[in-house]
């Protein structure tokens, strides 16, 4: 096991359910803070996690945490998109504005890359740390009392001081936190997404400028739909995604193979370049129709006895236009691990309450930003944008992006705990 910097052993035992970005990052953070971790994942093999998905984004508030995991950010930067701008176009094809992200460099790294590749880097780091990751472990129930929390996995009971439920948008952990089984619902939107080699684009006269001069990042915005395309690894790989209104049923599955002909119906009358990008998608390229599942904001992220905490999409699914789903899921693990460190083993329930208090408002403010951007893009007032093109830029605010979740937690923890104790004393 490689010798990574760690806080002294805390004696706190943590079970984490789900090894998506939220769960695996929480496991690494708990290990950094000296807690003892078991990570349970239902997938039998790691390829089951890495083979799904395509482009995923970590903004500076998320990606800066990877800098604390030796070697991880460097490995990610090698496979990430090398652009610091987004070119935005009217849906009929007219160029509108280039939004630069260069100023954000001082806030921390931005990482945009293939979900599977970036995940594999984190997974390898967790393995190198010697974290106890158990695959093929499907958790079927949660329980807690005053002294401990636990899970039922493959018919066996397993207990710890605290359980972190990171099972994504279809979480079972929500039931114990909420006291009832709420069902995920359709957000009313779906995303078509594709990823394939850039040489297909390089051979096409109309499209080749998107790959032959290195990485690019472009967006076409129209009524109820936005279309984003980008190239990575110097143009060797290419991807496009478009979010559109969809009233499909999400009960049984939310990932379906997509069809080029179906996609083209949504972009009827759009700029020829957009239609040409879709038409160029090779049959062997991964084209997915991804239904966006949503949940109403939860009244709480923690269980009645404060020994089980929901993190990541289990607590708060995000819309893609927020570009924050993955980053917020990393922040969750950072804060929870730090709160446990500061509280110590005899105060685990206080730590879990402090985690919720620190995270709750910030997460919901970030979620609201995603809705704002979608509305701005899908219902654009083009007359106003002609006068002021930057009106159409993604909203990029320092409170959200120039933020160090660990430093903030260390700074605020004592005040938050004093507040929590004050509330208890008044009851
Ligand atoms: C298939 C898929 C593809 C995605 N693709 C993209 C993409 O291309 N771009 C993008 O921006 N976002 C994508 N996302 C969303 C993004 O990964 C998340 O928003 C974000 O990373 C937060 O992840 P999470 O760890 O909370 O949840 P998830 O990524 O959903 O991870 C949850 C994990 O928990 C495991 N699990 C679930 N139930 C149990 C159980 N009972 N017992 C044990 N383990 C369990 C799951 O197998 C999974 O590994 C995708 C999500 C999924 C599920």
Topology of this structure?
Layout (H helix, E strand, L loop, with lengths): L12 E5 L3 H12 L3 E5 L6 H4 L4 E4 L1 H4 L8 H8 L5 E6 L4 E6 L10 E4 H14 L3 E3 L4 E6 L4 E5 L2 E5 L1 E4 L7 H6 L6 E13 L1 H4 L14 E6 L2 E8 L4 E9 L9 E3 L2 H7 L5 H8 L6 E9 L13 E3 L14 H19 L4 H31 L3 H6 L10 H4 L3 H22 L1
Parallel strand pairs: 1-2, 1-11, 2-7, 4-13, 11-18
Antiparallel strand pairs: 3-6, 4-5, 8-9, 9-10, 12-15, 12-17, 13-14, 14-15, 16-17
Helix pairs in contact: 1-5, 1-10, 4-5, 10-11, 10-14, 11-14
This protein binds flavin-adenine dinucleotide.
What are the salient characteristics of this protein?
single chain, 427 residues, alpha/beta, FAD/NAD(P)-binding domain, D-Amino Acid Oxidase, Chain A, domain 2, 2 domains, eight-stranded mixed β-sheet, five-stranded parallel β-sheet, 14 helices, binds flavin-adenine dinucleotide, flavoprotein, FAD/NAD(P)-binding domain-containing protein, FAD/NAD-bd_sf, FAD, monooxygenase
